[in-house]
Specification:
By secondary structure, the chain is mainly alpha-helical. It is built from three helices and two strands.
Length: 69
Amino acid sequence: MFTGRQSAEGRARPYRRFSSLREAVLFAVEGQPAALICTTIETEDARLQNNEIRALYDSAEFRAAMTGT
């Protein structure tokens, strides 16, 4: 997960690694909601921007996986 914007000097954005997409999405939405607008999650198969992260978090499938149903 990358948070924040790239600086004018070209420095890399801060990043954090997670063992699963679920953990990254939870952290992005619940752990730092104010920074979500500048957040990108990269996986082997996809690159999710803030609106896609929020849509995944709000999806019925994701919520069911969180509750174990």
